[in-house]
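Appendix C. Worked example: NUDIX domain-containing protein
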Amino acid sequence: MPLPRRQRVAAYAVIVRDERILLSRLADRISRDELWTLPGGGLDHGEDPRDAVVREIKEETGLDAFVGEQARVYSAHMPHAKRDGGRSDYHALRIVYDAWVPPDAPAPRVLEVDGSTSEAAWHLLSDVLDGTVPTVPMVTQALEDWSPFRMQRVGAYALIRKWDAVLLVRFSEKGFHTGSWSLPGGGLDHGEAPAAALVREVEEECGVTPDVGELLLVHDEHFSGTAPSGRYEDFHAVALVFAATVPDDAVPRVVEVDGTTDTVAWVPVAELTDGSHHVLDVVHEALNAAD
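Step 2, the predicted output written as structure tokens:
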């Protein structure tokens, strides 16, 4: 007698943060041996796959996830699969999204009672890829096709000097290069003129309105890391650095609440090389370009 046919559609997510991946451990009733998988699960009838993966991530890890637009689809046909106490001609369709959780998300924990997973944890990617962490084949397959989200951003920044000091901002925990100092400025909105973006960003970060001068430098930086959103990105930053001035009586202060800047200050140029401030290369390059 032919085995009964069963087809299942499920949605899963690759969630990477700082060289770690979020995984769910299969419950003992599913696998007696330790075995980890991507967070996710079967779609309810009529449920959108993106809604399903957000729901499943919440149930299996306790975390609220954001899901990317693109997905990869994997098909696995198991003609003699043993599932739910019997054998069937089993066909699994797995939709795998890229997803991310906020950087300040709490430690993962399982919310679903008597579900298919018993534990959730962050694991080093290297341990997953070399087999130190035992996983279902889908994890390795998904990671072979996965790559960080490619993000390119054009920003406008200001070199503002007063006597022997330069106006700098310090990155908060929500930004790349946390704790480092750099020039005030930020990304251009779509259709926004660089000079207008610079004025807006300096007002938000420093509470002062700059008078924008000449373009001094085009600086670029390429690196990978966790973005303020929590998404792991292959990031290419292109910075347009302008000379700018502010009134002599201007008192800088951070205006934007919960942004990527937590401190603004006039920093003596002599302190930029004495180790008291970790300063990004763009600051030194801008000073050299201005001299």
